[in-house]
Amino acid sequence: MYQKLASQTFSIWLIQLVLVIIPLIDAYFLMGISSKNFAAYALANSFYSWWILSCKGVLQGIVFATALHFGQKKYIEVYQLLLQSFWLLGLLVLVAWAMLGLSALGIAQAPISLDTQRLAIQYLQVSAFGVPAVLGIRILAGWLEGISQPLTMTIWLWFGLIIKTILTVWLLSGYWGERWQNLTGCALATNIMYWGIFVGLLIKIRYKFPKQLAQFNGSTAQRLNGSTAQRLNGSTAQRLNGSTAQRLNGSTAQRLLSPIFF
Questions:
Q1: Cα Rg for the chain, rounded, in angstroms?
Q2: Contact 149, 261 (CB under 8 A)
Q3: For the ranges 77-81, 119-123, 210-214, which has the lowest average pLDDT?
Q4: Which value, to the nearest 10 degrees, does the dihedral of the CA atoms of residues 56, 144, 62, 101 take?
Q5: H-assigned helices in the chain
Q6: Are 186 and 31 within 8 A, CB to CB?
Q7: What is the mean pLDDT of the chain?
Q8: Closest by alpha carbon to 168, among 155, 179, 182?
Q9: Residues 135 and 53 sit within 8 Å (Cβ to Cβ)
Q10: What local confidence, expressed as pLDDT, does residue 17 receive?
Q11: Residue of 244, 253, 203 whose CA lies nearest to 72
């Protein structure tokens, strides 16, 4: 038990480490370009981080809700909770976009050079493109933590970090045009990474949780575990919970519990 807890805690720590490394990579590259790029990045990222972290804090609640259903073996509710959370995602994306827009207006009125203003506003505009993916990943990370699978997100984020670093070098080197040879190139590389992880994990989870899981009637499972199980003797109930339950719904419970998302 303690070994599993330590493993999951370490996976979550690695996730947070990636989120710390990303701005460090951007700062390292931008320091080598110009002081204006570095200053604009610090200014814009202070607004961006504030609003994004606020929205992420709201989405953190999915961890506890998912863990509760998962602990009670309500696998259908676990899947439905993930689907319902995307309604909240849509609302928070609109809130984040509005706050980033107001932040850009505030930067435009700041007593700083026009070049710094322009770069900071461009950074927020490019970053807004990745807001749905950033918040969506927070939902998926919380959901995976709730079903004791944080390692999945850890692997995807570390792999994405490698891709993001390569993209940043390409963009700042001018392979995609002069337009991206500044802090907007860093923002674009980061958002491409987030969108790739978000879409990839959605496809993975959708593959592991087919339609029959969402369509499977929860009341049927309750009746199966209730009145039917009471009428069965001990050995029959064991077989029901074993081979029959595994075959039920295409071995849904077994696929849910197996750590093979990656």
A1: 23
A2: yes
A3: 210-214
A4: 20
A5: 2-31, 35-59, 61-71, 75-108, 114-129, 131-146, 150-172, 183-208, 211-215, 218-223, 229-231, 234-239, 245-247, 252-257
A6: no
A7: 80
A8: 182
A9: no
A10: 93
A11: 253
